[in-house]
Design brief:
Two copies of one chain form a homodimer.
Chain A (H helix, E strand, L loop, with lengths): L6 E5 L3 H6 L8 H17 L7 E6 L5 E6 L2 H4 L6 H13 L12 E7 L3 H10 L3 E6 L1 H6 L11 H7 L3 E3 L4 H13 L12
Parallel strand pairs in A: 4-5, 5-6
Antiparallel strand pairs in A: 2-3, 2-4
Chain lengths: 195, 195
């Protein structure tokens, strides 16, 4: 007989509270990225998921709205890439499934690595006006992660939807975290690695 | 000062328990699709989300593993398309972020409408071996939904990853649900409808 849970829940690692303590506005975009990459690094060190983090910020003020990290392995759900976690946390906090909704300031997602095919597709629905990326797709692929079947000109496709992309922000710092993950024997969890 | 919840949760509508009661295996694929489209229709009638549903089944036996519906408006999260909900419920139930993992039977996702850009990108990570679709992208667009910036040959991209696609299954039945949603004044909730 069929049964399924009527709820799905995922939980951030405990260290996030400590990591975000005292943070309010990060006025410089480089500083926002550095903060996000630091969370990716911590996620590796604490072994709470893949080497990726993402934050939602108010573009003008730099106010931190949410911070997410990759939770695929720790929470057992393939959709829990850092971007999806950050978007969901922000939408719950602001009680709006559209971060670009009326009356809201403009928001951006700052992500430590360029989004995979799924997260790229999620960005237009999230309501963010800007995407800031650190490491490139190729940096993630270099350590064995698969970015999925993404439009070659994904930045252009976002631009057509009035979503600006700033890329290569602190790229070296972001790449280092990917390398650390590999060196620490972190799991490369693409579903089809068993194929 | 920054604060955010440390958990995100979403909940299925209560009627799902009733709708799935007594269901176990649906041996014919058309029957699986009909069951999924029925859930989309019910989601419209109950006003619990968009006109979309998706189920995860064991391919060989037709055993129902999970049933998800679109919960974007009811749960306030833009990622909660029916496919994402169904994938997450199945992964939680089987305690595996890879539905194609070792020791598991082959799984398929049966979805009442072709996946949007995000859900398309999520499919390779989910571990399903087959995708069965009802209404087409163009049917969703006809009532105002945006399918996002998706690869023109998305079916080919999945095939390259050994994920089979069967499309136009019960297409007319699936289209009717989209039309009903529009006629009932259902919200077309693409984030940028306010732009």
């Amino acid at each position: 007989m069929f049964t399924q849970s009527d709820t799905v829940q995922f939980k951030l690692p405990d260290w996030i509270t400590d990591y975000t303590s005292g943070v309010d506005c990060l006025t410089d975009v480089h500083e926002r990225m550095s903060f996000v990459i630091g969370a990716a690094k911590r996620n590796v060190e604490e072994k709470t998921g893949g080497p990726f983090a993402a934050g939602i910020f108010e573009i003008a003020s730099g106010k931190l709205v949410s911070l997410g990290v990759n939770l695929v392995t720790s929470q057992g759900l393939s959709i829990l890439h850092a971007e999806m976690v950050a978007i969901s946390l922000a939408q719950k906090k602001l009680a709006s499934y559209d971060l670009g909704g009326e009356g809201l300031p403009r928001h951006e997602i700052v992500t430590s690595t360029e989004p995979c095919a799924m997260c790229f597709g999620a960005i237009p629905w999230s309501g963010v006006s800007r995407v800031v990326t650190g490491a490139r797709d190729e940096d993630a692929r270099r350590i064995g992660f698969d970015e999925g079947p993404k439009l070659a000109d994904w930045q252009g496709a976002l631009a057509e939807r009035q979503i600006e992309v700033i890329h290569d922000m602190n790229r070296e710092q972001a790449r280092k975290v990917l390398d650390e993950y590999l060196q620490n024997g972190g799991k490369i969890y693409n579903a089809r690695d068993s194929a």
